Amino acid sequence: MIPLGKTKFTTELQVRPDDIDLFRHVHSSKYLDYVLAARFDQMERCYGMSMQTFLDRGLGWVVKVSHLEYKRALGIAEKFHVTTWIEDVRGSDVEVRFDITKADTNKTACTGWCVFTLISLTSTRPEPIPDDVLAKYAV
Asked: Structurally, how many domains does the chain consist of?
């Protein structure tokens, strides 16, 4: 197994009006969307393997587990950073940790982790993570 460098990558996003709930802050369901948007960006920009690269190989990533801890609310039009890193790789699974912080104060809004499973798009069954992917994710 290739040792993981656990390099952290950051994507800046902004709260959209349709992210806001009746309590005038971001609805809890949107935070996972933010993590997925950041990972989509970082896969191409930071790891050099876009989601399209996986699709072209007949592979895809699905969320197996997600754990989110909310610390403070994000509000409308607020800018924030989503920082992610690969904590562990186990067979077909990649554990990704994340922190979502307010851009203006750097205070944590949400923290947590997800386990993503690599699957074959044909069979929808888990696939071993290819060595070239492991090498790129080891940064």
From this structure: 1
User: What is the CATH number for 113?
Assistant: 3.10.129.10
Q: Is residue 78 part of a domain?
A: yes
If you ran DSSP here, which 8-state letter would residue 26 be given? B
CA distances from 115 to 80, 88, 108, 124, 129 (A): 23, 9, 21, 16, 13
Q: How many CB atoms are located within 10 Å of the residue 116 CB?
A: 20
Three state DSSP letters for 66-121: EEEEECCCCCCCCEEEEEEEEEEEECCEEEEEEEEEECCCCCEEEEEEEEEEEEEC
> What is the pTM assigned to this prediction?
0.94
Residue 91 lies in a domain: yes
How far is CA 111 from its chain centroid? 11
Residue 117 lies in a domain: yes
DSSP 3-state of 135: helix
Residue 105: domain span:
9-137
Examine residue 4 and state whether it is found in any structural domain, yes or no: no
pLDDT tens sequence across 12-67: 999 999 999 999 999 999 999 999 999 999 999 999 999 999 999 999 999 999 99
